[in-house]
Amino acid sequence: MDAAHARASVPRFVRDPAHDLFGECGAIDAMFHPKTVAVLGATSQPGSLGHQALTALTGSGFEGSVVVVDPRSQASAFGVPVYPSFQDLQTKAELAIVVTASSGVFAAVEQCAAAGVRGVAVLSAVDTTDQHFGDLQRHICQQLRQTRMRMIGPGCCGLMNPSIGLNASPNLPMPVPGSVAFIGQSGSLATAILDWGRRKIVGFSAFVSLGALVDVGWGNLIDYFGSDTNTRTILIHMESIVNMRSFLSAAREVALQKPIIIIKAGRTGAAARAFAWHSTCTVSDDDVLDAALRRVGVLRVASVEDLFHTADALSKERRPEGPRLAVVSNAGGPGVLAADQVAKEAGEIVPLSTDAAVGVMAVPDSAGAATPMDILGDGSSEPFLEAAKTAIKDPSNDAVLLVLVPQAMSDPLSAVQGLLAMDHARKPVLLCATALGELPREQEVHACFPVLPTVSAAARTFNHMWRYSYDLKAIYETPELHADVTERALSQRVGELIAGARRAGRDLSECEWKEVLAVYGIPTLDALANQSEGHRAAPLGAYARVAAETVGYELRIGSWSDPEFGPVLWFGAGGRFAHLWAHRVVGLPPLNATLARRMLERSPFFSGLQALCARGALNLTTIDAALVRLSQLVIEHPSIKDLEIDPLMVSAAGALALDARITLHGPEVEEHDLPRSPFRPYPLQYVSNWTTKPGETVTIRPIRAEDEPLMVAFHKRLSEETVYGRYFQLVTVGRRTTHEALTRICFVDYDREMVLVAERRTRVPASDRSSRSQT
Fold this sequence. Notes:
Blueprint lengths: L2 H7 L14 H9 L3 E5 L8 H10 L6 E5 L12 E2 L11 E4 L6 H10 L4 E4 L10 H15 L2 E3 L6 E3 L4 E2 L9 E8 L5 H10 L4 E6 L8 H9 L6 E6 L5 H12 L4 E5 L4 H6 L11 H11 L2 E2 L3 H13 L7 E6 L2 H13 L3 E2 L4 H5 L22 H13 L5 E6 L7 H10 L7 E5 L8 H7 L2 E2 L2 H22 L11 H16 L6 H10 L5 H6 L9 H11 L2 E10 L3 E8 L11 E3 L5 H9 L4 H9 L5 H17 L3 E12 L2 E4 L2 E5 L23 E4 L5 E6 L5 H9 L3 H8 L5 H4 L2 H8 L9 E6 L11 E2 L1
Parallel strand pairs: 1-2, 1-4, 2-3, 4-5, 5-6, 9-10, 9-11, 11-12, 12-13, 14-15, 14-16, 16-17, 17-18
Antiparallel strand pairs: 7-8, 7-10, 19-20, 19-22, 20-21, 22-23, 22-24, 25-26, 26-27, 27-28
Helix pairs in contact: 2-7, 4-5, 7-8, 8-10, 11-17, 12-17, 14-15, 18-19, 22-24
């Protein structure tokens, strides 16, 4: 990470622990797997925080030892060993729990750092709005930086690891061991989360509350739980974010393998102000946060119930491939309600095919191609189970929802036994049972199926599941490369224009913004005029009329600078259509063609663009290319404060910027204080040429997601000896070139790792320009 990005992404007194892979994981692991836990500030008074902390630690079956460090306490005061200092301990403490008064927090942390404690959890509350809080942060972080100790808190509710009986969270019950890791910022949801786990037969691999986020943050724990073999799903209750870049980078790395589900408090300004007194950083624009979470594959839900249900479903079932849901119900009313709710949540109801349903349903003659979803008959379990098995095998759907309603003539025992014996590993199966408590073997059903209480909850849960799959596909889908990387000389020319305007305290003039857009491949009217026959001068109004007559749609694209997220791209209707759709879709640079198309798909008029494209009035790829080039411009030049192109005229021939404006940050904003994107752009500084011994020139550069087809061609040319030297076994070309295998190589987070390729340009006949390079 370069110095400018580091200074801009986090406060200067806070170290950036985003990717300290060699130091932080060991310290955090020591916090969750300690052999000795020391408590500082404990008192024997019942009801006090220190007494509750000791009670939780000693009453949960912790496999290690618990001690109290306090020179003023008596050895028999707590029922556990008491030592005057850390130096008197027989074994070194890996975890320290601080429950002192707020005035003694710094001294306690300093004492732990001097003793070589690996991790500290500060349960003591500290007022983050106090004027001395910044000094406390600086002092604590200085101690942590020198000793590589990690700290959770202050103001946290502690942590738990059920697998070893560690409960360092006062007044919270120990959950059963399992595979769900919960990360929260306060204790407001702790009791509800743990109670949900007991009712739904969901176990936890870990439970942790972060408090004021002075040191250990979201990214650190996501990294840790991402590599934890006991964790399969990560739940997050978030109020504020510190070090956005660390959080997003870690989430992108982990989300493909383990679902990350988040509920973010403070969607509105009033809600954000309500908890600002104990939060150190809030997000200024909730839509931008949504775009950022979508960009890294994090699933955001709006309610605690959705958090519970979606986590339960994703921890037990595979992700659906698409939005097609088949509903099988043993009663007509709930089946219709389910269809309505799924349609409301933008899903797609797929009925069983008539041929498949004839053998298991009573199909009326009027049904036609749309077979009813409910089982017609006396309510017995056999038709219901047969229809469920048929729906699971049917390739026309992506998931199955089973709606089971107890009826007078039904046989609940037979239905439950059939469900438990059913093979549903092919696709996700959700179960909506309105009175499951009345059914036998309830706990076994909960353990095998995601059980939803209502059809609306089931519809929302399925909607979250398939959208989660959809967002992950967008991240790792191989994009087309619309434009080569801008040459350094041209980018430097734009930088000089912007720097000169900033020194003069002004924005870019019309001639300057036209030159800037032209450099980054967005044509303007001047470019159109220069391409006219003979380059003869002509009135710009004439070119505008020609453009307006040939263009199918008027759009607006642009960006603004967000304090937390840096440049934010937006897209909407422009020109004479702006009043019809005032909604703007936002996204974060850098974009590739796939991510740009996802922005278009979220617009309310995307269907209109598709209709125009079908008639040949415009080409959607030209809009994708304009967004990609604009994202490259704003991320390479963070001095741009606001940019707007209105209208951007698009047609089958291309895109044309008729009018634009570019405003800049003033000269009072230092270079290192300019807002930067939390996503690192393509590292142009590592692109270089190299001459081989035979005299051939090759380009060595970081890999891009668009290089996947070249990597496939590269692997097809490898010899068996080369393959064996790389993999230490013979791996077939088919296995080496699957999209999943190449994803780990081509889709690189440049904050975390770097993959370099050597690109050789080959001369090909003019009749075949498709293969212009080899990697």
